Amino acid sequence: MPNLNKNIMFANTIKSDRFSVDFVYNRRNNYEKKAHIDLVLEDFSLDEVDTMYQPMFLDPGRKSIFTAAIGMSPENHSIARCTTKEYYHFTGSIQHLKKLEKLKAESSIKEIETAIPSPKTLSCDVYSSYVDYTLSNITALFSFYGFRTAKSRFHLYQGRQRAPQMMVSMLFNGGTKYNKQKRSKKKKKKKNKKKK
Predict the structure, then answer these.
(1) What pLDDT, on a 0 to 100 scale, did the predictor assign at position 2?
(2) Predicted confidence band at 152 (pLDDT cuts at 50, 70, 90)?
């Protein structure tokens, strides 16, 4: 039963499944205080927007993920950009592909993969040769793409999850690309690691 006293948030309930523990808290309901407000463009003046907010104008592109003009002044505004090359660097896919290509060359998987016939055909004979070749080399492919590449694939997954957050940080905080203080901190850390 929820706590009727709105000053006490703890509901006197603790749940456990022998692995984790949950503490149940009540949420305050302020529905009667909230009013529905519709804001339109005419509610803001240009001076108010320029002093109170940080307007950004985003433009997606082909060579860049986004190009942003930050600020309202035509003379004094900054431009932030994240290229596709930077995005792939954030995800770590470039390093992943280099390591994977090196492993393929060492274990002769590259020759097997380049010799696979194309499955995109209407001819039954060509498709049959594709199936025969794949089935004859399936143990080598499974052994290569097994546990050896699992860790690097997991790091690649983490990088793909992390990259959008880094782009948003670059847009709002400048990141290390546009913030000289953050760049100098990163350089100091590298120097300290080299000394050790």
Answers:
(1) 46
(2) confident
Q: How far is the C-alpha of 111 from the C-alpha of 134, rounded, in Å? A: 13
CA atoms within 13 A on the CB side of 101: 6
Q: How far apart are CA 137 and CA 143, in angstroms?
A: 10
Confidence of residue 12 (pLDDT cuts 50, 70, 90): low
Q: Give one word for 67, left, alpha or beta, with left for phi > 0 and alpha for psi -120 to 50.
A: beta
Q: Nearest-CA neighbor of 130 among 119, 138, 142, 114?
A: 119
How far apart CA 81 and CA 58 sit, in angstroms, is 9
Higher-confidence residue of 1 and 64: namely 64
Q: How many angstroms separate the CA atoms of 3 and 89, rounded? A: 51
Which whole-number Å values give the CA distances from 17 to 21, 25, 50, in the listed order?
Answer: 7, 18, 53
When pLDDT is cut at 50, 70 and 90, the band that residue 1 belongs to is very low
CA distance 122 to 129: 13
Say what the pLDDT of residue 131 is: 94
Other residues' Cβ atoms within 10 Å of the Cβ of residue 113? 13
Q: Give the span between the Cα atoms of 149 and 142, in whole angstroms.
A: 11
Burial class (CB in 10 A: 0-12, 13-18, 19+), 189: exposed
